Structure formats: structure tokens, C-alpha cells
Amino acid sequence: MIISEDKVPGSTVLDETVSPPLLADNRNKTSDTPEKDVDAWLPVTGSRNAKWWYSAFHNVTAMVGAGVLSLPHAMVYLGWGPGVVVLILSWVITLYTLWQMVEMHEMVPGKRFDRYHELGQHAFGEKLGLWIVVPQQLIVEVGVDIVYMVTGGRSLKKFQETVCGTFKQPGNSCRQLGLSIWIMVFASAHFFLSQLPNFNSIAGVSLAAAVMSLSYSTIAWAASASGGRQPGYSYKYPDTSTGNLVFGVFTALGDVAFAYAGHNVVLEIQATIPSTPENPSKIAMWRGVVVAYIIVALCYFPVSFVGYWAYGSTVDDNILISLNHPAWLIAMANLMVVIHVIGSYQIYAMPVFDMLETLLIKKLHLPPGIILRLVTRSLYVAFTCFVGITFPFFGSLL
């Protein structure tokens, strides 16, 4: 990095002849053409023509995961009073912190923090910011992708079991496949989808995922409500040891926290929205965030409260398992979960692709192109698939 003195006494500007690894370039008008070409190729900064509704369904897809189906079970250990308070407070607090991130995206005049680690570098320094932010961001994003790989495989397996059990005819065999096979089937879709170049190119996938999340959440609470309170329901805390009860409470809080994920891709989503001094990106981004959080409330609160009301402490850790009928509805809901986690996987993978490709191009000086994208992203999908097959309980570890 070359440092040159600015005209203002005591200030310095960074000469952009050499760019540090993993540091995204917020180029001004004096940027050289090769660097501009690289930024235009990378997944996060490759397209800046997103509309405000892109922000809405990207945020819904990133936040409303299959974890919403475990919220009624979290209520078992929290109870009505604490459970309602925790869910509502989490909604309010995460909305406020997300607003803060939207505002910080362009808090420095003439500069956009397109990536989470850029904001960390501004706060903690160029090197320390990378070491503080990047490991944590990678743990979350890669970990969530592995969890979604397993979730997609399990939902496909549950779909097959439900369909075979319902429509099986005498004399026709319906072979049950193992979870590993279904995880590989789920991963096969991502070998193709991961080649889509940037955030805006997966807008259709993300929109479908957002619609599916609202759909299977509606199925979960509507089916619970239509069945009414189940025999043997109880709102008492589980009859177990104090240690297990405390562990259950912390697990429930973790389920709620995991359900309100998505903040670690907010800056990358906002980076796809055009911005001018007259019309900064935060206006469109915040409009989309508000719509997204309304949808989140429509998903989370009915599923949590109606599911717990209907089943009490007997509810399973996945509300769809408690819904034994009608079978066709349960099968459809599981298929919706599959479509949703396909989109969620891509949303969380894009920042990882951006980091890997930035490192390979700017640090190792590999030429950007189809081959680099194909190899890098295919290896990432294969890695998450392998870990998901090897550790199908990865979600519990996370």
C-alpha cells in the first residue's frame, strides 16, 4: 500500500495501485480500469440495479429459515409469558440493529461499505477489522449453508416418506433412500445455481424462496389452528431435572436467536441497490426491510403462538412432524421448505463466493472468468455437501 500526502495538512490518502487482499475497493473516479473490471465481475458489486423489493425478498429469504418451525418447541421451555416477551423483543431489537446497519452503509460521504468486513475495517482498522469480522462471518455463513444442506435433504426425505406412505399401492414397492442420498440430491441443484454470477441474478430464486417461507409457515399455523387443542396438551414446563431444564431454556433462546438471522448479509444486499446523493441506497433498502419484517412477523408469531396453543409441551421440535394429517398438506409443506432453503443457501453463499474470488483474483492474481467461478463455487458446494453428510447433526453443533 502506497501512502501519499493529501493537500490538507496532516491527512493522507491511499494510493490504489496495490489493493490489500480481501479488502473490497470503493473506487472513485480516479480508479484504474482493471480494478473497475474486477469489481464489476465480483458477486457483490457486479450489479447495482436492484429495486427496493429485491431488498424485501432477499431479507425474508435470509431471515425466515426452516428454524421458524422449531419456535413452538422453544415456547415449551420459555412458557407463555417469557416466550411472548422474548419473541417480540427479538423482533424489535433486530429490526433496530438492522436499521443501524442500513444507515452505516453510506455513513462516510462518497464511500459505500459494500461488505461486512469493510465496515469492520473502518471501525477497527484495516488488518484488525478483517481478523475480527471475517472469521465470524464465515462461521455463520458457511455454517448456515451446511445446516440448510442437511435441512434440504431431510425435507426431501420426509416428502418421499409422506408420499410413499399415502399413495403406495399394493404390489408397488417404494424404496426408502437414506439421508445422505437426499443431501446429495439437494446439493445437485446448487452446482448449477451457484454459477449465477451475482446477487441480482438470483433474484428469482430468492423471490420463490420468500413466497415458500410464507406459505409453509401459513400451513403450519393454519393446520394447527384447524385441529384445535390436542388431547393431553399441557402448558407446564417439562418434568425433568433442573440441569436439563436450564439447558432446554438456553437451547430455546438459541432457537429464537437463530430464527432472527440475516444481519450478516445486509450490507451485501444493500450494495446491489443504486445510490446517488439525491437518492441514497438506504431509502430503498429500508423500505424493503420494513416490508420484510412485516412478513417475518406474519410467519413467526402465528407459528409460535398457535403451534404452542394447539400442542402445548407435546409439540415436536419441528411443528410439521406434529401435524400428522392431512398427508398431502404435510408433503407440500416439506417441498416448500426445500424450495425455500435452496434460495437461502444461495443468499448466504454469495458473500462467501465474493470473499473467495476476491482472494484468488487480487491476492493470487488468477484471471477472472468462467473457469475460476466454476471451480471455486463447485468446490464450495461439494464441501458443504460433504460436511452435511458426515455430520447430519451439524445444526445442533452450530
Commentary on this structure:
With 398 residues, this protein is mostly helical. Helix content is 67%, strand content 2%. It has 15 helices and two strands. It has a two-stranded antiparallel ribbon with strand order 1-2. Strand 1 (2-5) and strand 2 form a beta hairpin.
Q: Please provide the ordered H/E string of secondary-structure elements.
A: EEHHHHHHHHHHHHHHH
Give me the side-by-side strand order of the main sheet. Answer: 1-2
> What is the helical fraction, as a range of percent?
55-70%
Shape field: globular
User: What's the main sheet like?
Assistant: 2 strands, antiparallel
What value does the Rg take, in angstroms? 23 Å
Estimated structural class = mainly alpha
Strand content: under 5%
How far is the N terminus from the C terminus?
A: 38 Å
Number of helices: 15
As residue ranges, the low-confidence spans are: 1-33
Number of strands: 2
pLDDT averaged over residues = 84
Describe the structure concisely for a colleague.
The protein is mainly alpha-helical and 398 residues long. It has helices at 33-41, 52-63, 71-78, 80-104, 116-124, 126-167, 179-193, 203-227, 242-259, 266-270, 281-311, 319-322, 327-363, 370-390, 394-397, and strands at 2-5, 12-15.
Task: Please tag this protein with its features.
two-stranded antiparallel sheet; single chain; globular; mainly alpha; 15 helices; 398 residues
Reconstruct the topology from this structure.
Elements: E1 2-5, E2 12-15, H1 33-41, H2 52-63, H3 71-78, H4 80-104, H5 116-124, H6 126-167, H7 179-193, H8 203-227, H9 242-259, H10 266-270, H11 281-311, H12 319-322, H13 327-363, H14 370-390, H15 394-397
Antiparallel strand pairs: 1-2
